[in-house]
Amino acid sequence: GINVWCAAGKGTFGTDELVTRIAAARLDKVVSHRTLIIPQLGAPGVAAHVVKERSGFSVVYGPVLARDIKAFLANSLKKTAAMRRKDFPLRERTVLAPIELVQSLKYYAIVMAVFGLVALLRGSLLSTSFLIDAVFLFATLLAGTVLFPILLPWLPGRPFSFKGALLGLAVAAGAFLLSDASLVARLSYFLFIPALTAFISLNFTGCTPYT
């Protein structure tokens, strides 16, 4: 799956590692055949001809999903079009959102603690402006960790940073209209919030079958 793809891109699932593991496991003594089936998404890191030269094993790129391996074997190691394709439906996107949100909450808590201390020293801890800032900072977090994966296919543009920035602009517009801070402070929302949602959205690149 996606983890194999990431590992192939980083070199931890690649030609050298595969050859090393074949030798360490003495695979040629364990099995009589000389065929290896590896995940299709591992292909970017594996040079099949080099594996063949160095280990004697031929590489066959299997289906994207492990659940299709049985059908792949039954079909004489031939993939159907469905076996080559990795969809990324809403269910798979939303299941990742809670993880991203929880990981980001600790940073939100740290930032709010610092902002709260400054507001306390200025005597504005319970001011409407501070409360609105706290709410919209959390909304920024939600936009980057929850709304982004849900709306991913429909957000314009290809770069994740651009898609995330668009969500940030929507949050910034809401903060601008509702905050009672100075005009300069409210305009700063359009610099800070889109940048933050763009950064948070970039964390999602390693969780998707496309970037």
| Overall 3D form | elongated
Low confidence ranges: none
- Portion in strands: under 5%
Helix content: 55-70%
What radius of gyration results from the CA coordinates? Answer: 24 Å
Q: Compute the average pLDDT.
A: 89
Total beta strand runs: 2
Tally the structural domains. 2
What is the count of helical runs? 11
| Category from helices, strands and their pairing | mainly alpha
N- and C-termini, Cα separation: 15 Å
Secondary-structure map:
Elements: H1 2-10, H2 15-24, H3 27-30, E1 35-38, H4 48-55, E2 58-61, H5 69-74, H6 81-84, H7 90-94, H8 97-122, H9 128-151, H10 160-178, H11 183-202
Parallel strand pairs: 1-2
Helix pairs in contact: 2-4, 8-9, 9-10, 9-11, 10-11
What does this structure look like?
- It is a single chain.
- With 211 residues, the chain is mainly alpha-helical.
- It has two domains: 4-84, no CATH class; 90-203, no CATH class.
- Helix content is 64%, strand content 4%.
- It is built from eleven helices and two strands; from the N terminus they run αααβαβααααααα.
- It has helices at 2-10, 15-24, 27-30, 48-55, 69-74, 81-84, 90-94, 97-122, 128-151, 160-178, 183-202, and strands at 35-38, 58-61.
- Strands 1-2 form a two-stranded parallel sheet.
- The longest helix has 26 residues, at 97-122.
- The two termini are 15 Å apart.
- The mean pLDDT is 89.
Please give a quick description of this structure.
The chain has 11 helices and 2 strands; from the N terminus they run αααβαβααααααα.
Features:
single chain; 211 residues; mainly alpha; 2 domains; two-stranded parallel sheet
